[in-house]
Amino acid sequence: MANQVIMPKLGMAMVEGTVIAWKKKAGDTVKKGEGIVDISSEKIEMEVESPGDGVLLRILVPEGSVVPYGTVLGSVGGPGELAEEALAVESSPAAVAAQGESAAAILAAEPAVDAPREPAFAQAGRDGIKISPVARKMADEAGLDVSQITGTGPQGRITKEDVELMLRERGGLPAGKAAEAATGQADTVAVRAVSAASTGGPASTPDASLQADAQSIERIPVTGMRKVIAERMQASLQQSAQLTMTMHADVTALLKLRESLSQESQRRYQVKLSVTDLIARATVLALMEHKQMNSAFLGSHIEQYGAVHLGMAVALEKGLVVPVIRHAEQKTLVQLAQAIKAASERARLNQLAPEEMKGSTFTISNLGNFGVESFTPVLNPPEAGILGVGAAKAVPAFVGEELVRQQLLPLSLTFDHRVLDGAPAAAFLACIKRHLEEAYSLLL
């Protein structure tokens, strides 16, 4: 009997997932436990393994599609098993309708988070041609005869990309129509997504001079992690009153303290203290002294938190994640360093659960390792503040009448002016600076 390949639920809050890429084609031999399809949900990406030995009989959900968890993505079985039935099921409107009803039932049982997208299944339509719903809509909008389009999807189905190719061959995509046809669907046009992220509106037709050199253009779908980051950063800038202020902290003594403590902390606790750990400790102490910054603007009211759940931004190859160190105010310097190291390693191995990236009350983003001197961080909503950290730089400075060498660390605080004003925000940043310059305060 064939085994179904199911869209898994990655965390309690997951509603839908994206099919990133199929590693196998229909008819390929697979082994139980072998990765056959990559999927993602918000900032989590993972590989779905084959449920058994055999061949990949069918692929029901094409790459780029967004479907509810629990959706059947495909099936694996013995060679020849259910081959004819697989094709029949794929092209059966009744089966597709049943799949949609199943997906709707799954969503109905879950609390609404965002409006779910309609599953982008390919199906045989009114003319017997297998074509995805978004491709059908785009073709109808443009007045194309779908029988003249060559399908490149599984079993020859027509995809959105096939329609776009036909439109380009006939003089380019009609302004707005093709992009609007894809609105809310799984395989949103990358050009439209980028334009919407920057302007908040539908995309315009790409400049003709760019399209003239179309062979050199790589089209990258905005899905998974990149899509979440784009949506949240745009929303952050549109829905808050952000202001950034900067200071420099003299971390000469701090770097000496770190050097003297690192060997012992490595020996006793198997963790080497980093500058980030010390900055995190200083930030936590400052948040406990200035609780107005440890807040969130929630429309009708402001929530001020007694606990510090510290978000630590971690750069990955495909984007950015922010694991959360919960109750950071209860941790010693070494315990905080251990938690940050463990969370960062799990992030880089793509092992974080969605719950581990939610509920932060303040975030730190350190780009000093990349040589960045200073930058303007964007709020992680609904938090009231985020600290940006640049690279420390040795500079000459006068202390009284004496010229000395100092290591200055640039600090950039972005805060929500709806929650607090410039003076209390400056006092908070000055508190971080004081703790960094009075390095031994971090041990108390």
From TrEMBL:
Its EC number is 2.3.1.-. GO terms for molecular function: acyltransferase activity. GO terms for cellular component: pyruvate dehydrogenase complex. Residues 130-167 form the Peripheral subunit-binding (PSBD) domain. It is an enzyme of class 2 (transferase). Keywords: Acyltransferase, Lipoyl, Transferase. Belongs to the 2-oxoacid dehydrogenase family. This is Dihydrolipoamide acetyltransferase component of pyruvate dehydrogenase complex. The lineage of its organism: Bacteria, Bacillati, Bacillota, Bacilli, Bacillales.
